[in-house]
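Bug #77: duplicate submission created two jobs. Keeping one. Sequence:
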Amino acid sequence: MMLKRFEAKTLPDALAAVRAACGDDALVVETRATRGGFLVVAARAETTLKPRDQAGNATALSKWTRGFQPLADKATDFGMSTTVLRAVEKALLGTRVDMSRPGDPALPNLASRVLAALVHTEPRVETAVDHFRTLALVGPTGVGKTTTLAKLAARARDRGERVAIITLDTYRMAAVEQLRAFADLLAVPFDVAFTATDLRRLLQQHADADRVLLDTTGKSPRDRDAMPLLEGNLRAGKCATLLCLAAGTRARDCGVVLDAFEPLGLDAVCLTKWDETVAPGEAVATLVERGLRLSHICTGQEVPADIVGADAMAIATAAFDCERGVHA
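Kept job's structure:
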């Protein structure tokens, strides 16, 4: 996998350069702002990597080189996609590890490091109080947005931050009462916004808060009529956006969800219900292929205990070691 750097004054210009050089299916490894604009590190998707035999020669009998086969089997069982694993194998073929046979002791750790480099994380969701001061949690119905918001609010309080909670989810009264109970427990302000005007007013009212967390109504990714209203509310509040996605979501369904919510401008993704699946790799691989950043993983319902900051190396190790959880 040959990585290339692309720099431009704007992110769309940098991505256009990526598409021109690496194709529409390019694998984006890193995206970040620079003093002069934006930097994107990307590679052409490896779609022509030929299967290899036990000696590492091209053949139709084996999908992977013999040395990589055991790791690929574990990662596939974890849910990791062929596209991502081919990129890892291609990178390993350029190193000194022995790929012609299994058993090289350096291979698992090196493979984990390569995969970890492809998993982009976003720790600034909790550390950058400028861009992420006002954070809206969005996502499909039933993924745990309200519980995740309560966990983030509790963690912020533990850091000594002044927190306010606002909900836009007036569709489910139970959600309002659940959040009100969380807010009372944390002794933080709680308000309901019915319109974009309400939201702007409440944000001004809580201008002295270090962190304002917004809950939103769960949206079916196929309900395209609801998205413009949600987008209008988020723009009115100038909110950063955190997508909550169940870790057990199948790759095709992940694609549908991301197609629906990416137009909102996703700053990061939180994988929820990690403890409820044995194959979270499908969701992780989809984020890798889309170049999206992972901020947190939720591992249960306890508030605030069952949430951890995303650790790329821990995820990669879990994939290749067949572990089924990421813990604090």
